[in-house]
Amino acid sequence: MPVSHDVVPASLTSVPAPKVSTDAEISALRAKKAEEQRKESAEYERQQQAERKRAEQEYLKQANTVVVTPRGKKYHYDTCQTLKGSYREMTIAQARRKGYVPCKVCDPPAQTVTLENSGGLYWGDNVYSRGKQVLDVD
């Protein structure tokens, strides 16, 4: 049977012609993409700042927490080898106000640790470090 060249199959008539974008449309799409990337970048930076703040607060809490024994005159880190028996936690400021002095063995700070007097904290790859001490914040 001969093929008619005048009849177009229905499957071809429903396919839209490819859209040709104008320079203005391309510019608008690029601007939209750039704005989305800027927003994502700003959100990422906000999250990083919040994580740094949380890590700083955790570091300061750990750095300023010491322990004292019921009859001792010194304050210690809770890992001090001289600790025996029971002890209770308090801040360096509280210990100093109550007349405690730093232990010479574990050598806790003599004053409250702040970010300014801590020797500097360095942020990178979810870790805060201060000298040789590294604090994982994950």
Explain what you see.
The chain has 138 residues and is an alpha+beta fold. Helices cover 37% and strands 17% of the residues. Residues 122-138 have low confidence and may be disordered. 9% of the residues are buried. The radius of gyration is 33 Å and the shape is rod-shaped. It contains three helices and seven strands, in the order ααβββαββββ. The protein has helices at residues 10-13, 23-63, 92-97, and strands at 65-68, 74-76, 88-91, 101-102, 122-124, 127-130, 133-136. The longest helix is centred in the N-terminal third of the chain and has 41 residues, at 23-63. It has a four-stranded mixed β-sheet with strand order 3-1-2-4. The protein has a three-stranded antiparallel β-sheet with strand order 5-6-7, with helices on one face. It has two domains: 29-63 and 114-138, no CATH class; 65-112, no CATH class.
Q: What's the arrangement of secondary structure elements?
A:
Blueprint: H1 10-13, H2 23-63, E1 65-68, E2 74-76, E3 88-91, H3 92-97, E4 101-102, E5 122-124, E6 127-130, E7 133-136
Parallel strand pairs: 2-4
Antiparallel strand pairs: 1-2, 1-3, 5-6, 6-7
